[in-house]
């Protein structure tokens, strides 16, 4: 897995945030993105996934609600939707990764 794959995913996520409004109809695109991102293998993919969910939760609450409802019958989405961190840390981590930084502190 190359860093460019992570950077491309972050770029696509930012495009989703800008392109789609906070509405029930937009939840499909975010759900699809999250499920596709699960296939990315990297030492920082977990950090990215947690950051994506946290940012959706804070910036797109209606989308987050729809994804959470989907989690009632989709076990993968139910697991993903419970992954959150501090909002500012999530934004900072994604910005660092988008710029190619390896200075992310991963707490295990």
TrEMBL record:
Q: Which domain of life is it from?
A: Bacteria
Please state what the protein is called.
Uncharacterized protein
Q: What is the scientific name of the source organism? A: Metabacillus endolithicus
């Amino acid at each position: 897995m190359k860093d460019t794959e992570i950077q491309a995913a972050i770029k696509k996520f930012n495009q989703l945030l800008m392109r789609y409004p906070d509405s029930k109809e937009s939840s499909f695109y975010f759900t699809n993105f999250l499920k596709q991102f699960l296939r990315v293998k990297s030492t920082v993919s977990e950090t990215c996934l947690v950051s994506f969910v946290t940012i959706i939760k804070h910036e797109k609450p209606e989308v987050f609600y729809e994804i959470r409802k989907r989690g009632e019958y989709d076990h993968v989405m139910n697991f993903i939707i419970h992954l959150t961190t501090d909002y500012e840390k999530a934004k900072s981590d994604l910005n660092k990764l988008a710029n190619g930084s390896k200075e992310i502190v991963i707490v295990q």
